[in-house]
């Protein structure tokens, strides 16, 4: 099973997934995917495999990605070897773009983990980051993108402390592991 992690900026996806990764570090039922991105490693953000545009294209054209997409001027890829993990009924967890969900759902047993928070919480978290103006934050929050119809979606509302948010994610992932083993 593939768990596609999605959600708006400020929802705390990276924080909650880091907590889940740490909690399941020794649990072989799960694989947390490291994405390939055409962004320098030192640019910050998530731990990713940094690739040049040319190297990304070579890997993509050679079939090295199970899923790939373009967003915000960057290319993102999920390695093809996730398919071997899913064949052994491991739960593969990857941060995906909402635009990649239809293809992922057509190709794999997919469950979407939509991590979100109330709008006022999102606004406060985005303001604390200090990367955008108040007007930019308001515009970002107004662009809510609906998830495609027909997907298996689990929703985690991240409106409590980090420990509670991680506990909510762990519950979703444990249910997914039980479902994957039963299939």
Outline the structure in words:
This protein is of the alpha/beta class. 40% of the residues lie in helices and 23% in strands. The protein is built from seven helices and nine strands, in the order E-H-E-E-E-H-E-E-H-E-H-E-H-H-E-H. The chain has helices at 13-23, 53-61, 82-87, 101-107, 119-129, 134-142, 162-182, and strands at residues 2-6, 30-32, 36-37, 49-50, 65-71, 74-79, 91-95, 110-116, 153-157. The strands form two sheets. A five-stranded parallel sheet has the order 2-7-1-8-9, with helices on both faces. Strands 4-3-6-5 form a four-stranded mixed sheet, covered by helices on one side. Helix 1 crosses helix 7 (162-182) and helix 5 (119-129) runs antiparallel to helix 6. It is globular. The model has no long low-confidence stretch (mean pLDDT 89).
